[in-house]
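Sharing a chain and its predicted structure for anyone who wants a worked example. Both blocks are below, sequence first, tokens second.
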Amino acid sequence: MDEAFIGIFAIFAIFIALPWMVLHFLTRHRASVAKAAGDPTMNARLTEIADRLERRLDAIELLLDHEVPGWKKAMDRRSA
């Protein structure tokens, strides 16, 4: 009985479960790639957000340069 169950399970896993999983994840991957590449509005919006964040970081760095001279060297020493 146990050997028959193992055989049936192996056949199910090889011929049904494995192809289903491969096809499922291929479909999901294709959908995500198409969604990312096909939405120029979202790409433009994300680029705009990244640019704003970069400007904010530049402003913070300028403030820190003015208020705390040498902070970059201290941070470099801490991270090394």
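Comments welcome. The mean pLDDT is 87.
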